[in-house]
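tool=predict chain=A
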Amino acid sequence: MEIEDETRATRYTTLAAGPDFRHELEIRRSRFITVLRRSGDEHTARDLVAGLRREFHDARHHCSAFVIGPDRMIQRSSDDGEPSGTAGIPMLEALIKRESTRGVTDLSDVAVVVVRYFGGILLGAGGLVRAYSESVSTALDLAPLVQRQRLRLCGIEVSHADAGRLDNELRNAGYVMAETRYEARHAVLRIAVADEPGVVAEAHARVAALTAGNSLLRPEGTEWIDLPA
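tool=predict ok
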């Protein structure tokens, strides 16, 4: 998918693609059921809230928070009947203050809902803040996370005979290879590199050296790709 309106951020951390992640804590007899969903837009995030309201229709609270976009421009939260500031904001802070393996706070495209079944013991404002924050943080500790990076795709025209060798050499050099296209007269290897001028220039030089100057990188746009966190 080519990016039309490119963002300032070129990478961020998010949930791995797949089903919603669920985790449950019991705190002083109250059940806190946390559900995380990868959400690239507000509609997907709000669908999570609506779906859990139907599923857990007898629960007292369905508190929510989400952060969306590579630059994390969209941030929303809801206390859903809990005392103001004791649920939604702590949940949102648990998302936006989450540190990645690179030591930066860049988690995004994540929606979270904490469903609470009241256990009969009042937690107080401070206790609620800790409970909702802990519920989200614990779920994030256990959930599968990936690094989502904007990569620049480039094509390399080579002969069919040289395609396999060059593909192996580029992979061994640490480059991410996309699907190769085999056309009638040549093959087109597709390489994905970080969308940064210095990295692109280095890739140009590497390809030129490996092909004795016979092949060059041809730009094919940018794409967001999931990589191991």
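The radius of gyration is 23 Å. The longest strand covers residues 145-158.
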